[in-house]
Specification:
Layout (H helix, E strand, L loop, with lengths): L3 H17 L7 E3 L14 E3 L5 E3 L7 E7 L8 H12 L3 E7 L11 H12 L19 H6 L2 H4 L12 E4 L5 E5 L8 H8 L1
Parallel strand pairs: 4-5
Antiparallel strand pairs: 1-7, 2-3, 4-6, 6-7
Length: 196
């Protein structure tokens, strides 16, 4: 069940997104030169919130969207947009959410409560990873070490600006884009990046 604060933030989400779009949360980075990774993306693994391991090599041949998330953020309404995208492109795009408490402690819940919150309030059916660190710290999750290190992915050192930073990996395991939190997964430029 959503708290009062979460309900208010859901209502304010369009305003928050619009107001922050011109700042760093509206960052868009594109691998225009199509630089291949120096370390293979498909060697990455993660643990889902139910304890199962996920091997990214299972997604070879389809695009992957990796997004860091939080339940008490002005951008939390993007869960609904991500679910809509998942329904639309599920066969072509794998979406994996990585909950973290890295930004203003906006994800204090445990994995079980996060999963329940996402399912009850947004009908989320795409995978949720185990809650962890996405910013550059010793305990940063390995997939985010790859996403934020040009020595591994070939070109991008950009860490998520806030909750709901979005990284797109193409069908061959190349990091193609980073979209900041203020960019909706249903915006034209974002859809072009995942649908082309």
């Amino acid at each position: 069940m959503a708290s009062f604060k979460q309900k208010v933030m859901r209502i304010l989400y369009p305003i928050v997104r619009k107001m922050a779009k011109s700042g760093k949360n509206g960052t868009v980075l594109n691998n225009e030169q199509k630089i291949a990774p120096k370390e293979p993306f498909y060697a990455q693994q993660a643990t889902l919130n139910n304890g199962q391991n996920i091997d990214f090599s299972n997604f070879s041949g389809k695009k992957i969207l990796i997004v860091n998330t939080a339940s008490n953020c002005g951008y939390t309404g993007q869960y609904a947009e991500l679910q809509s995208l998942h329904k639309k492109l599920g066969d072509k795009l794998a979406i994996i959410a990585f909950p973290s408490n890295d930004f203003m402690e906006q994800e204090k819940a445990d994995d079980k409560d996060i999963a329940s919150f996402c399912q009850v309030n947004y009908g989320v059916t795409f995978p949720l990873a185990k809650k962890g660190v996405v910013v550059k710290k010793t305990e940063q999750q390995p997939v985010f070490q790859w996403l934020t290190n040009s020595a591994a992915n070939g070109w991008c050192d950009h860490v998520p600006d806030w909750n709901f930073g979005k990284y797109i990996i193409d069908e061959k395991g190349t990091l193609t884009h980073y979209f900041g939190p203020s960019i909706s997964p249903l915006e034209k430029d974002f859809l072009e990046a995942v649908e082309k």
